[in-house]
């Protein structure tokens, strides 16, 4: 698995996952429990992971859809 994006913006991960799912690219969200433990105040970023073989296509999809990869 490779990191596609890392963000503290709670709206980015669901958007990215929906776009990936529509293209048949599996994804996995990491650090969900850590953000819950810190009280959901947005200090700790969540990470979205994809398979190494899908990373290039997933990055292009995010760029084409206007999803920021560097937040």
UniProtKB/TrEMBL annotation:
Name of the molecule in the record: Putative signal transducing protein
Record-annotated DUF2007 domain positions: 1-62
Species per Swiss-Prot/TrEMBL record: Primorskyibacter flagellatus
InterPro entries: DUF2007, N-reg_PII-like_a/b
Top-level division of the source organism's lineage: Bacteria
């Amino acid at each position: 698995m490779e990191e596609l994006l890392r963000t503290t913006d709670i709206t980015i991960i669901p958007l990215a996952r929906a776009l990936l799912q529509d293209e048949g690219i599996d994804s996995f969200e990491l650090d969900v429990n850590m953000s819950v433990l810190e009280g959901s105040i947005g200090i700790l970023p969540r990470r979205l992971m994809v398979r190494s073989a899908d990373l290039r296509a997933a990055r292009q999809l995010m760029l084409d859809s206007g999803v920021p990869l560097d937040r």
